[in-house]
Amino acid sequence: MGLLDDRIVLVNGGSQGVGAAIARAAVREGAVVAVTGRRPEPGEALVAELEAAGGKALFVRADLADAEQARSSVTRVVEAYGRIDCLVNSAGLTSRGTLLDTTPELFDQHIAINLKAPFFAMQAAVADMIARKTPGTIVNIITSSAHGGQPFLAPYVSAKAGLIGLTRNAAHAHRWDRIRINGLNIGWTATEGEDATQKAFHGAQDGWLAEASARLPMGKLGQPDEIADFVVLLLSERSGVVTGSVIDWDQNVLGGLD
Questions:
Q1: Any idea which residues carry the catalytic annotation?
Q2: Which of 8, 123, 7 has the alpha carbon at shortest distance from 58?
Q3: Other Cβ atoms closer than 10 A to 142
Q4: Which pLDDT does position 81 carry in this prediction?
Q5: Element (H, E) at 70
Q6: Span 121-168, pLDDT tens digits
Q7: Do the beta carbons of residue 185 and residue 248 sit within 8 Å?
Q8: Residue 174 above 90 pLDDT?
Q9: What does the DSSP assignment read for 162-193?
Q10: How far apart are CA 42 and CA 145, in angstroms?
Q11: Mean pLDDT over the full length of the chain
Q12: How far is residue 110's CA from residue 154's CA, in Å, rounded to a whole number?
């Protein structure tokens, strides 16, 4: 038996990067998976890959900057499969901004995708779980930068720190409904999006990943498939009664100084 046998899992922001890795891991563990994304091409390609491997998957096109589309991503899954058992909020906007140069428009973009979308997706998922009187699990992908972060991540940190508070508040509110809600503060991770970000905002050249990896304690950036395995564990019954936990998934130790 897989860890997620017969579970209906929605991965918001699941068409690439960490979200896609979570979708692959969930299918391997027996889940039926739905993924959302703004662009149909990568989402449909991922679904085709998962189905070719023997899984069952669905792509839901959604712009999570729109709170109603974030909420309807859940209702679309419920309409397709009759329920939702697990939700992963994996979408994230990482565009740069400091306290001094962040515009109200950029700040609102970060709040919309990094905080508002998870809020309303969770609202819809928890409502379905309560209506059916069944347990469920939610994992929010956050960031170790939410502890403070670099100066150029001011709006990103603001929104993700809010997601930490939301994770704990919702977990406390719905523990008697047996809905477990946890978060993962992931560190620097090797994804397609990170490659584009490094080149767009920091002038990185081809080969930057190998150079950056050599400077890290474990000799590599975080790997999406490793994060995915951890998320599957949190979604599954093997994580027991754990709820309201926000776990630092990183190779840097908060508060450690050299």
A1: 156
A2: 8
A3: 27
A4: 98
A5: helix 67-81
A6: 999 999 999 999 999 999 999 999 999 999 999 999 999 999 999 999
A7: yes
A8: yes
A9: HHHHHHHHHHHHTGGGTEEEEEEEE-SB--HH
A10: 27
A11: 96
A12: 10
Q: Average pLDDT in the 214-226 region?
A: 94
Nearest alpha carbon to residue 53 among 23, 76, 73: 23
Taking the model in full, what pTM does it have?
0.94
* Gap between the Cα atoms of 102 and 97, Å rounded: 5
Are 43 and 12 in contact by the 8 Å Cβ rule? The answer is no
Report whether 255 contacts 49 (CB < 8 A).
no
Closest CA to 92 of 57, 164, 142: 142
pLDDT at 185: 97
Q: Which two tokens stand for residue 14?
A: 């699941």
Closest CA to 21 of 98, 90, 78: 90
Q: What is the pLDDT of residue 258?
A: 82
Q: Which residue spans within the chain are E strands per DSSP?
A: 8-12, 32-37, 56-61, 86-89, 136-141, 179-186, 246-249
Residue 190 corresponds to which tokens in the numbers above? 């090797």
| Phi, psi of 52, rounded to the nearest 5 degrees | -65, -30
| % of the chain exceeding 70 in pLDDT | 100
Instruction: Report the distance separating Cα 122 and Cα 128, nearest Å.
Output: 10
52-63 pLDDT tens trace: 999 999 999 999
Residue 64, both tokens: 């999570």
**Secondary structure letter of residue 15 according to DSSP:** S
